[in-house]
Design brief:
590 residues, alpha/beta, ABC transporter transmembrane region fold, Rossmann fold, six-stranded mixed sheet, four-stranded antiparallel sheet, 10% strand, binds adenosine-5'-triphosphate, binds magnesium ion
Length: 590
């Protein structure tokens, strides 16, 4: 919570105005029964002049209360929402800095819940906390004023307060843990809904709707149970808590009424006490809430700062330089790599030989060369692209671009020099043009169209209902797999990076179109260093050189025809891939 202070302080003006106007509004609130008392007593004494004066004062207090009440609400809520916005931005900007190793082990539902309910619980505390804290002031003021009027009557009017606090605490002790559980359950439910919606194609294809609905129903039942339990406790204790002030009122009327008959207190005083009995309950009812909300918000703050304190694993080194004007030589020097999630907890460097993806990987690619990487599925081909882009750092060994260790250059500059097309293209739910121009939102329409042309995408884009302005739906699901791949390819080509990594980037595109893409690429690729990860002979034939990886090392290196002639495992891998490809494309009508 202490760490929230600097954020709250950046909204100083709202905070101070809120506190100041809040105090004034509360003082005015306490003054109302006192002024009413004077007015009533003036009326009973038939003092018309005094009555008018007190009534006018009452009206002015009412107006003042309205003005200051509006001001403090506005300011405190402005503060609360301001802090919420800041926290959101802080959390999100930190999330974007975190490395892939973090996202490998974190569920998106968890992050979303932190970004939503945890930030909300802090916001609630900030909006209501200061106000509730200040009701203590109104309690002290009212109490002091009552004591000056009549001490025993003051004590009688306080009699029910411990009861209010006691039952309030009892209620919260039941409800508070339940709200925690309810929040966790809601996150669970959100994950189920999220997976159902995102995975709807899989769900339906397995006709597994019933099973999914059952899963959802169970989660929903849990939430119902939690909330019904909470309501049961509320139904039990709230009526007691609400009746206690009425009992207090009756006691004040009984005792105070006798005092009034005896003439010890005035009717106005009796009236004022009656009003204060109700007013005094508020701090007692809300103080417990404040304590609990504080606990809750501090737990939330802890969880938010847990994310913010998570150090990104991959950062710029201290004297990182910018990697500029790259010629495009790439060297992998004795690279060993195990995914962080599979390293031993105690010793992050240690790894079992089974989990090691690269074990002494060596590869030198000359500027402008096109190298195809071939290997069985799971052999670590995509991993090579990820390491080159520094999504992860090797466990040992070095990767050099133009002779620079990629750990010594800034991440931004490195990634601007390397364009990568993944095998599973992710499109944003915006227009085709915006998707292609993702790397450069200022790209002209001609540039976008020429990138699309090179990716052999312009034909089908023009046939879309609104051409380049067609919105592609979430993740681009309104397009076919091959169309998505071509847009993803165009997006990377637009960036015109000196190094290009195509990770199975044309796997969903049929051979004829692929051949056309290759013609266009050959023009595009000349002068660029290209790493082609592929299975198809047609793709591989585009490369100057082929390397075969097996068990984390390069086992063969040469031209396609050399390897075909000399390397038996190369021949069999390609044959397997060919067979699989035929099956895959058999079902596609791209
Ligand atoms: N994020 C990850 N965390 C942990 N292990 C991973 C991760 N990504 C891949 N792996 C593992 O690393 C190994 C190499 O994966 P990689 O994706 O590089 O294979 P690939 O050669 O590209 O396979 P494919 O041809 O099927 O695309 C696999 O055994 C895989 O299970
Ligand atoms: Mg792969």
């Amino acid at each position: 919570m202490r760490r929230l202070l600097p954020i709250a302080k950046s909204h100083k003006k709202s905070l101070y105005i809120g506190l100041l106007t809040g105090v004034i509004a509360l003082v005015l609130n306490v003054a109302v029964p006192a002024m009413a008392r004077n007015a009533i007593d003036a009326a009973l004494e038939a003092d018309r002049e005094a009555l008018t004066t007190w009534a006018i004062i009452l009206i002015s207090i009412g107006v003042g209360r309205f003005v200051f009440g509006a001001l403090y609400r506005y300011s405190l809520f402005q503060l609360a929402w301001g802090v919420e916005t800041d926290l959101r931005t802080l959390l999100y900007s930190h999330l974007t800095k975190l490395s892939f190793s973090y996202f490998d082990r974190t569920q998106s539902g968890e992050v979303i819940s932190r970004a939503n309910s945890d930030i909300r619980s802090i916001q609630v505390l900030l909006a209501f906390g200061p106000l509730i804290g200040m009701t203590i002031i109104s309690f002290i003021l009212a109490f002091g004023y009552m004591m000056t009027l009549h001490v025993p009557l003051t004590l009688v009017s306080l009699i029910t307060l411990p009861g209010v606090y006691f039952f309030g605490q009892k209620l919260r002790r039941v409800v508070f843990p339940l709200t925690w559980v309810s929040q966790a359950r809601l996150a669970e439910l959100a994950t189920i809904v999220d997976e159902n919606v995102n995975g709807i194609r899989v769900v339906k294809s397995f006709a597994a709707e019933k099973q999914q609905v059952g899963l959802l129903q169970r989660a929903a039942e849990h939430i119902k149970w939690v909330n019904v339990e909470a309501i049961r406790a509320r139904a039990k204790y709230n009526p007691i808590i609400e009746s206690l002030p009425r009992v207090g009122m009756a006691l004040v009327l009984l005792y105070g009424g006798h005092l009034a008959i005896e003439g010890t207190v005035s009717i106005g005083t009796l009236f004022a006490f009656n009003a204060y009995v109700i007013m005094l309950q508020a701090p007692f009812r809300m103080f417990g809430f404040l304590l609990l909300q504080t606990q809750r918000a501090s737990a939330s703050a802890q969880r938010i700062f847990e994310v913010i304190d998570e150090e990104p694993a991959i950062v710029d080194s201290e004297n990182a330089t910018h990697l500029l004007d790259v010629e495009g030589s790439i060297v992998f020097e004795n690279v060993h790599f195990t995914y962080p999630s599979k390293r031993e907890e105690s010793d992050p460097e240690a790894s079992s030989p089974i989990d090691e993806v690269l074990s002494g990987f060596n590869l030198t690619i000359r500027p402008g060369e096109t190298v195809a990487i071939v290997g069985r599925t799971g052999s670590g081909k995509s991993t090579i692209g990820r390491l080159l882009n520094r999504f992860y750092d090797p466990t040992s060994g070095k990767i050099l671009v133009d002779g620079n260790d990629i750990r010594d250059v800034t991440l931004d500059s490195l990634r601007h020099q390397i364009g990568i097309v993944f095998d599973e293209p992710f499109l944003f739910s915006s227009s085709v043009a915006e998707n292609i121009a993702y790397s450069n939102p200022n790209a002209s329409l001609e540039e976008i169209a020429s990138a699309a042309k090179a990716a052999e995408a312009s034909g089908f884009i023009q046939e879309l209902s609104e051409g380049y302005e067609t919105v592609v739906g979430e993740r681009g699901y309104t397009l076919s797999g091959g169309q998505r791949q071509r847009i993803a390819l165009a997006r990377t080509l637009l960036e015109k990076t000196p190094i290009l990594v195509l990770d199975d980037a044309t796997s969903a595109i049929d051979v004829e179109i692929e051949a056309k893409i290759h013609d266009a690429l050959a023009k595009h690729l000349s002068g660029r260093t290209t790493v082609l990860i592929a299975q198809r002979v047609s793709t591989i034939s585009l490369a100057d050189r082929v390397v075969l990886i097996e068990n984390g090392v390069v086992v063969a290196d040469g031209t396609h025809s050399e390897l075909m002639a000399n390397d038996q495992s190369y021949v069999s891998i390609l044959a397997e891939a060919e067979k699989k490809d035929q099956q895959d494309l058999g079902g596609k009508n791209d």
